[in-house]
Amino acid sequence: MAIDSHMHINHFILDNKEKYIDAINNNSRIESVINIGLNLQTSQESISIAQSNSKFYSSIGVHPLYIDSQNLEKLYGLADNPRVVALGESGLDNTKNNFNEQRKYLIRQIIIANELHLPVIIHSNNCNKQVIDIFKRYVKPKYGCVFHCFQPDLDDLKYLVSNGYYISFAGRITYKTAKKSIEVAKIVPNDLFLVETDSPYISPEPLRGTINETSNIKYILGKLAEIKEMSYIEIETMTTQNTKRLFKKLQ
Q1: Residue in 50, 36, 8 with CA at minimum distance from that of residue 213
Q2: Residue 249, class by beta-carbon neighbours within 10 Å (0-12 exposed, 13-18 middle, 19+ buried)?
Q3: Is the Cβ–Cβ distance between 71 and 40 less than 8 Å?
Q4: Prediction pTM value
Q5: From CA 170, how far away is CA 138, in angstroms rounded?
Q6: What is the distance in angstroms between the CA of the first residue and the CA of the last residue of the chain?
Q7: Contact assessment for residue 105 and residue 139, using Cβ atoms and an 8 Å cutoff
Q8: For residue 139, what is the DSSP state?
Q9: CB 126 within 8 A of CB 99
Q10: Residue 139 neighbours by CB under 8 Å, 6+ apart
């Protein structure tokens, strides 16, 4: 069975979140999902969903586009919950001009993750090199890290792989324009890649333009099986094992 390592179900992204929760609970091919927090409110909501639904786990953190008036020290209390498996998503995003503030939030969240012995989920929108510079100059994740929906760069990949960090592939790997991502997928080590939907965003082919659901993970797994010249079951099993290795609190 598959694990969706990065998706979003919360009240301000989806109007009818119960519908999508039920679809995951009733899907026999989905072992579990990690519901990602974007700020303190959605992090708490993710924990509440995970407490009521055994397939769901939570990641807590503050996304770089949601850093306004967020008290990061409250993450310590949220992390006490056993359904919390990671810190994130946190990172950098070049679509806003508050880059210095984003850097402070990222550095602090990595420090908190290290103190809590949690892996970090990184959001990096055209900022791979800037995130890596923070790792080199200030602080790096001690308990694992994944660059979700990885934006391809072979030099960045070399650094991440050399540090044992993970790469996650989402719906873009299925696009006709994904030549660089396919190149990355061919060479990333088999024990260092995950799959995700980033639901409800980034629907894969042939469903682009629709609300993305966790069930669509099958298209991403199928494309990676083609790229890696492996069977679907081999890729599904491998990515499930990799996800559990990174997120050690997954059962």
Answers
A1: 8
A2: middle
A3: yes
A4: 0.97
A5: 29
A6: 13
A7: no
A8: -
A9: no
A10: 107, 110, 111, 114
What residues contact 100, with CB distance under 8 A and at least 6 apart?
none
Kindly report the number of other CB atoms within 10 A of residue 233's CB atom.
Answer: 10
Helices (H), the chain: 17-25, 40-52, 75-78, 99-116, 128-137, 154-162, 179-187, 217-228, 232-246
Q: Could you tell me the CA-to-CA distances from 39 to 80, 138, 191, 248 in Å, in that order?
A: 17, 23, 30, 23
Cβ-based neighbour number of residue 36 at 10 Å: 29
242 within 8 A of 194, measured Cβ to Cβ: yes
Phi/psi for 133 (5° steps) reads -60, -40
CA-to-CA distance for 69 and 63, rounded, in angstroms?
Answer: 12
CA–CA distances in Å: residue 215 to residues 34, 54, 62: 14, 17, 26
- Relative orientation angle of helices 128-137 and 99-116, to the nearest 10 degrees: 50
Condensed to tens digits (0 to 9), the pLDDT of residues 38-60 reads: 999 999 999 999 999 999 999 99
Going from the N-terminus, what domains does the chain have, and what CATH number goes with each? 2-246 (3.20.20.140)
Query: Tokens for 85?
Result: 């498996």
30 forms bridges with which residues in the sheet? Answer: 2
CA distance 148 to 244: 16
- Pairwise CA distance, residues 147 & 72, whole Å: 21
Question: For residues 91 and 94, what is the distance between their CA atoms, to the nearest angstrom?
Answer: 10
pLDDT tens, residue by residue, 119-159: 999 999 999 999 999 999 999 999 999 999 999 999 999 99
Tokens of residue 135, six digits = 């790792």
